Each structure stands twice: as C-alpha cells, then as structure tokens.
Amino acid sequence: MREISKGANVSLTALSEDAGAVVVSLSWSSVSGAGDADVSVLLVDADGKVRSENDFYFYNNPAAADGSVQLLGKTPTGSGDEDRISVDLTAVPAGVERIVVAASQYGGARFGDLDDLRMTVADRSGEPLVGFSIHDAGVETAFIFGELYRRGEEWKFRAVGQGYETGLAGLATDFGIAVHDEPESEEPEPESEEPEEPGQGEAGEEGGETGGAGAAADATAMEKTPGARPEPAAPAPAPAPAEAAPVPAQTRGRGPRTTKKKVTLPKLAKSSLAENDSWRPARLFPVPTLKSDKEREVRATSVLLSVMAQVPEFGRRLTAAFGAPAGRMQTFTEVSLPHGETPRRPDGVIRVERAGKLWTALVETKTNGNPLRPEQVQQYMDIAARRGYEAVITLSNDVALEGAPMVDVKIDGRRKHKVSLWHLSWAEVAHQAQMLIRHEGVGNAAHAWLLQELLEYLRHEQSGCHGFQNMGAAWVPVRKGIEDETLACDDPRAVEVVESWERLIRQVCLRLGGELGQKALPVQRVRRGSDPQARRTAAAQKLCLDGRLTAELRVDGTSSVIAVTADLRTGKVRTCVDVPAPAGSYPLTTVKRLVRLLAEAPADLHVESLVEAGNGPRGTLERLRPEPGDLLPRGGAAPTGFRLSLIKGMGNTRGNTESGFIRSVDEAVDRFYQGVVAHLGPVEARAGRRG
Q1: Nearest-angstrom CA–CA distance, 439 and 232
Q2: Residue 450 CB: number of other CB atoms within 10 A?
Q3: Nearest C-alpha neighbor of 368 from the set 243, 443, 467, 445
C-alpha cells in the first residue's frame, strides 16, 4: 500500500487493474473509546458544487439508487472504529467530476479528541491501494479526508485533510448546499401498524436501496442529538437544531422533503386466533422435519440465498461489503463445477450483473456449530481463481475476528486474477434482517414478510443457524484451572478462551444493535497498528493472573460505554457504566435526580459514588430509594460521578444452553441496557472501569 501526504495525489488505475470499484475507509480511535464521527459523501460537478439533493449521502441517506455510492457502516477494529464506503466508479454519472469524502462530529466534540485519523482506499478485491493519515486535527468539527476525481479516462485520489470549525453546515455550504436555520416542520406519515399481505399494495415494486431523491436532504433528518439518530423509516419533525441543517440549494423555498415511505413490521404482533398455545402458525420455511446437518445446510443455504435475491435491500446489504456491485442479483444452489476428475458442488453461488459485467461468489455453508473445512474452502478458492470469479464466502455460526482467519488458505501469487475470501456469521445475517424490517424499512410489504419469515427460520431451534454457541474445548479446563489456581500463564488454551470471548462480545453487540436499531461495537483501548494476536496473548496472561475476562462495548451515537466482566473465580458476570455528575449542581440534587431517573431500574442495581481519591459510598438501589443522601461522600466532598452495576450468576457450561455461559452473558448485557442505561435519558455515561 502506498502512503501519501496531505495534498498529494495518485492514480488508482496505476495502482491496481481492479480499481473500477473501490472501498474507501475512514478510521479513528480515542483513549476513552467513546469518540465517534459520521461519514458523508458529496458528488461534485466541474463547478465544485453538488448538482442536486441526490448527490449528498450520509447516515440517513446511505445509498445511491444507481449503486455508485453506498455507506457500509461502522466496523470495530483493534483500535477503534472504521467506517467504510463502497464506490462503484464505473457507475458514477458523467456529470460528476469529484467524489468528496468527509466526516463530522456533533455535541461539542472535536476531531482533536480523536487519534489515528486515517483514510484508505482498497480495490474491489479488498487489496489496500493507498493510505493517508491526518496528524494536525484540533478544534475542527468536520473534516474532508480526501477525494476521488477524474482525469480523462482514469480516476485519481487526492489527500485533502481540510478541517472546518463550523461543522457539517460549514462544509456543506462550500459545496452549494444551503443551510436552513429554522427548517419547516412537516407532518410525518403515520407509521404502518402492520405490513400489507404479499401481493397487495407495493408488492410489485422494485425494492431498491434508499431512495436518493428525497432522502439525502431531509433537513430535519440531519439534526443530531447525542444518543439518538433519526431513523430513515419514519422521519419526524426535528427538535431545535444544535447545528444548522444543510439542505441542497435547489430545494430552497420548497420546505424540507421526506424520504420515501418504507415498510417496517409492528413491534407488537397481532393477537392470535388460535384456540390454544399448541397451535403453531404456518411458516414459509418449515424446519421441524430436518434430521441431519446436511439437510440443515442445504435448507439454510437455499432459504438465505432465495431471500437475498427477492429482497434487493437485503441482498445488497450482505454483499456490498464483499465488493459486489449494485445490480441484478440471482442465486443458485448445488451447482456442479469441474475440478479435476471429480466435480465440486459449492453450497451456493451468488451472481450480480451490472452494465453487462458479472460478479460471482461461491458460498460454503456450515450450520449447527460445525467448523469450516480448510481443504474444502481451498478447493473453492482454486475453482474461483480458474473461472475468473471474484469471491468465496463462508457462512457459519462462528464469528470472524481481526487477525484470526476462519480458515487458512494458500493464494497462488502467480495468478493474475485475485479471489477474495470473506466470512459471514448467521448472527450477522439475522442482525441485518432485523435492522431492515424493524428499524430502517424495506421497499414493500412482501419484502418485510419474507425477511420476517427468514428471521423465524433462523431463530428456530432446529435450523442450526443460531450464531456463536460454544466457547470451545479449552473453556472447561481453563475455567477449572483458574478455580484451583493451576493454570499456567503460558497455557495456549487461555488464548483460545480469549478469542472465544471476543467472538461472544461481537455477537452480543449484533443482538443488542438489532434490538435498538443502532450499531453496537466493542471498544478496543489499544493503539493503531498493534498486533491483535499479541493483544490476545496479553489478555490471556491477565486472565490467568486475576481470573477475569473483560470487555467494553458502546452503542453507536452515544458516549455510553458498558463494561462487562466475567469473573471465573466467583462465577459472576458484572455489567457496569459510569455516569458523570453534572457540573455546577448541588450534590444532594444530583443524587436525587439520579435515583428518579432509575425509578424503573432493577432494585438490585448497585450504585457507587465516585470521588477524586478513594472509594465513595455505595449501596443497592432498593436501599437508596428512600434515602438518596446516603450516596453523598463524607466530609462534604462532591461526587465526580456514579458507577452503576448489575451482578448475576454465570452459566456453568461452555455452550448456549439454559445454564450456559454464553446465554448468561447475553442476558446480562441485555438486562443492563434495557433496565439501566435506557433509563438514563439525557445523562451521558462514560466508560466504567473494569472490575
């Protein structure tokens, strides 16, 4: 990968023969783990201005209808977050000269609070081409990281690094986007109480990505309040803005526009007409008849691929991160492909056609916790390379980790054609389906119904598609070794347990994010460039010494960091968060207000006052409700904040049974967020110290 400095430029065509589509990544980290920013993309003409509202893409308008731009969302890295954008350069309209990639912050945050600001550009296969780091960020609240621009028949990349103290509004004004200081309110459409039956209403429409026409510029949707993002499925009148909302100049005088109405499923199911609970509703994808792992794999592959082809939003969501273009998708199962004397039959094939070109991926599926077989995946990689296919996608209950490949395969460097190997977890499939039908919406009622049936299938106990469910063979001996203090610090099994713990936390984040409609991400407090395996080795040594597995996670759009600790010596799981005390308020008023906010929280919630030195008073919420003043430190010292903690028993088994460890951690995080964090409201939580 070529590193360039601010102001430099480079030809993408010269760096790769596969640069017709690229993935742009913006990344950053912070010491607290709470820093965040939102990416945006502007398509600019020869005059340096957007042509219309369709040329502005951000979190509430994440995709172009023509497939040229799609915001892929955040993914956790070893040092913070990475926001990725898919850009199909072959689909960019002829009138666009530059593609400007920027990011902005909100709520008083500044880019100087973030570390390791960086932009990278990779080709379609995922091979990094060029990187640019920003080292001089300070008080800026918006930044142009870089831009892709045309020079004749080729595309080039320029490292910009220009900051704005006036935030997103100042940046937007520079590109011809007007700012409405007081956007008009518009009555939102009433949210659908239930989807229409398949075959009615909009069922015949082509369900594409988010409609660009109205979505990009909904001025009210641009408003940003800490802890909450507007949902594209149901735009609502915005509160008084903290920052003026940018709106394309072409819409001036027309008032704010709303996004095209999308269908989401109701949170509450319709009342059943069944006589008793033994009656089961008919399902599109039945599972009780499945008898073997092979049957489960065949059924799961066919169900998933058919829904991907029929629901464009869903199919595009799953394949865009793998370099697939936006186009007509068809899927196939049990395809026979020549391989020596014996043909091979991958579980599935995905093909996407755009502008007469085909993108093809082979799919290898495992269910019920069965591991992927390296020799089988290697065969598919070889077949894909010989036939000119672009990717091999593995799908299983396991969760991929940075720096820890799911399977080891050999890549023949002599081959000109590159094949990318990607992994997808069944938990991620369920997460993306839930995000669409519960929060973001899909094109019509038939699509919503199909996704709901897919979710029902994945959640059925017989499907074998339940995500990460087993802490591995090392779990029991490591836990026993910690209990009787016989585990050596260099025992490699401890590293295996740490890797399983990371996979569990990533899956917990997927499930929590699906329920909330926001991304939930693990927080990694390490510097960029650190070796993931070295980090896991250090965590394993710490596990051997104190018997604890620790992690932190954050819900996107908030600064609340939830610390999770599994103490293998005591058999307890602790979840906690730190809440800062408001500046300038009276201590007694502060503690009373906190207790009122936690009126619906569990009575066994532990509350501890944080002071500058030493430990402050603590007690359960049940005891503190009648006497909030018991939280006040002695001697008149004012508390700097409060630590809120819940403790529950830890499962004994390594799997996800009723008494299993995985289930106990999942339930602990869910109970803590729903029962505690969700009630804090405007109180901003900070990272809780582990332990």
Answers
A1: 8
A2: 22
A3: 467
What stretches of 224-322 adopt beta strand conformation (E)?
Answer: 245-248
User: What is the mean pLDDT of the segment spanning 557-566?
Assistant: 85
* Torsions phi, psi for 511 (to 5 deg): -70, -45
pLDDT tens digit string along 604-648?
Answer: 999 999 988 777 899 999 999 999 889 898 877 888 889 999 999
How is 561-585 classified by DSSP, letter by letter?
Answer: EEEEEEETTTTEEEEEEEEEPPTT-
So what's the pLDDT on residue 527? Answer: 67
Residue 292's contacts (CB-CB under 8 Å, 6 or more residues apart) are none
Distance CA 102, CA 105 (A): 11
Other residues' Cβ atoms within 10 Å of the Cβ of residue 593: 15
> Strand pairing partners for 609?
642
Q: At how many degrees (to 10) do helices 492-516 and 475-483 cross?
A: 110
**CA–CA separation, 440 vs 523, rounded Å?**
25
> Which tens digit of pLDDT belongs to each residue from 271-298?
778 888 888 788 888 877 777 888 899 9
Our CA angle for 324, 325, 327, nearest 5°, is: 120
- Closest to 32 in 3D by CA, of 608, 691, 689: 689
> What is the Cα–Cα distance from 213 to 236, expressed in whole angstroms?
18
β-pairing verdict for 2-3 and 128-134: parallel
Structure tokens at 209: 């990505």
Cα–Cα distance between 475 and 468 in angstroms, integer?
Answer: 14
Using the 8-state DSSP alphabet, how is residue 436 labeled? Answer: I
DSSP assignments along 282-351, one per residue: --SS--TT--SHHHHHHHHHHHHHHHHHH-HHHHHHHHGGGTPPSSEEEEEES--B--TTS-B--SEEEE
Dihedral sign of CA atoms 114, 115, 120, 124 in order: negative
Beta bridge mates, 119: 26, 132
CA angle 195, 200, 201 (to 5 degrees): 75
Task: Identify whether the C-beta of residue 329 lies closer than 8 Å to the C-beta of residue 352.
Answer: yes
DSSP 366-434: --TTPPP-HHHHHHHHHHHHHHT--EEEEEESS--BTTB-SS-----TT-SS--EEEEEEHHHHHHHHH
DSSP H helical segments within 262-311, as ranges? 293-310
Tokens of 374: 């390296």
Q: Quick one: tokens of 116?
A: 């390791």
Give the DSSP H or E segment for 162.
strand 154-164
Q: Which residue has the tokens 């731009």?
A: 69
pLDDT attached to residue 208: 40
Q: Specify which residues 329 forms β-bridges with.
A: 352
Q: What is the pLDDT of residue 416?
A: 62
546 class by beta-carbon count within 10 Å (0-12 exposed, 13-18 middle, 19+ buried): middle
